[in-house]
Amino acid sequence: MDDGFRSEQSIQDDRRKYSYKQALPIIGELAQDEAFVEAINQMKKEQNDLEKLLHSQRREITTMHEGKVKVAKQRANIVGQPITRHDALMLNDNWKKALAKFDREKVLPLWDDLVSRQQQKLEKMGVPTMFETQEQDEREKQQKLVKVMENLV
Q1: Superkingdom of this entry's organism (predicted)?
Q2: Where do the domains of the chain lie?
Q3: For 21, 65, 74, 105, which has the most beta carbons within 10 A of its beta carbon?
Q4: For 53-73, what is each residue's pLDDT tens digit?
Q5: Do residues 114 and 47 lie in contact, with contact meaning Cβ atoms separated by under 8 Å?
Q6: pTM for the full model?
């Protein structure tokens, strides 16, 4: 039975399919809402905090690598020889592997989780094109609108 009203879910489903041009006026309206602006600012803060944490942890890996290089150079000086090419390559390779492992096991899962939570929250707030997805084309469309929102709030 159609009572003339559409469900909230129906409206959200429709907004998922909006074009960039269709979404702009709605984002403009949402940006006038203090609660919306506060929610966007909170999401930006959470993202910045995560970025700072991950950057700091990644920097620790590099600092540890630099310490190992320093020890290797000191050891080479003690024996009166330069660090060997093999040792230098091994140190560099281990550092690259440590960074890649950190990115793969820590950064990517945390980042994907953050993006999913942001997509869900933005969808609940009625932001067009926003819904949880891994689809690259959809994410690119979402990113364009996120940039607009960032400039408006």
Answers
A1: Eukaryota
A2: 16-62+99-152
A3: 65
A4: 999 999 999 999 999 999 999
A5: yes
A6: 0.81
